[in-house]
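Subject: Amino acid transporter transmembrane domain-containing protein structure
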Amino acid sequence: MPTKQRPLSAGGSRPSSTRSHGSPRERRLSSVAYASAWPTTFHEGVTVRAYSPDFRALLRRSPQLPNESSPLLLTPRDVGDCSSFWGATLNVINVLMGVGVLSLPYSMRVAGLTLGLGLLLGMGIIANLTGHLLGACLASDARLRSYPDIVNAAFGLWGRRVVSMICFVELFIACTMFLILVTDSLHMLFPAMAPSALLVIVCACILPSTWLLNLAVLSTASLLGVLSSLALLLLLLNVGLTTPPGELGSIYRDAPTRWVADDDAWALSIGLTLVGFAGHAVFPSIYSTMDDPAQYSSVLNVAYTVIGAVYAAVAVAGYVMYGDATEKEVERSVSLT
């Protein structure tokens, strides 16, 4: 049976099929988006669409609302607070070149020069490689901003929670370790003051730096940290070169050194060496604050090259100067000379 044709409208043409005009937001702003016209016949009416005034001029001045493809939080590149290539490099060096450099001569003592330098080179290569892998993960999706975000994409919500807790514990323990180290070092300079009083002073001095949310500003403070580590290397070399030959602390002294460890204490050097390269928890933050994230790989290469050179110089110089008398922290050995 043939289908019945719908009657023509007053204009002589059949109504077109219903199509969406404008974005959903434009349709929501229209107060009379749909209306029903008078029927052209007694039995059947024709649905037509009457549009409200054009609000697109107002939409251009309205704030952009986020959707499922846009991040809810602004990145530093959105607000103009970005780190340059050298600023990001200084941040990476400052994160890595910390307390670990002080224990490297002792690591040479317990592992021997051969194994100690081998661990130093191997750990540096592995840390650099994993840092590049983190950058590749972050570059794969603009919504990934942190270490937990990467884990969430791979293992879901529970993986994110576990890794977030691990990162929190790692950073908390690192802060505690730094506070204890700074307090002990100041107590050597000011033995008359109680360690608890020095700890309060250190916390009061460090607290304002925690209010900085922009790593581009923090790169200036990172420069001071890098210069402090380089000053330690220069101080160590100065002591070794100025101490009379044959005395403890002289770089010309024939101190008892070993190329290969002869006991089971070498395993301790693994942790001591790894501390100097641990800082991946903050790499995503450094990546997200770069004005050109494509330079992230170059930043890591330059940073690890500088760090490796300083670490090797401090480790070898400290161990050659003090031999089996090397303390767990090299500044304690320097204070004895």
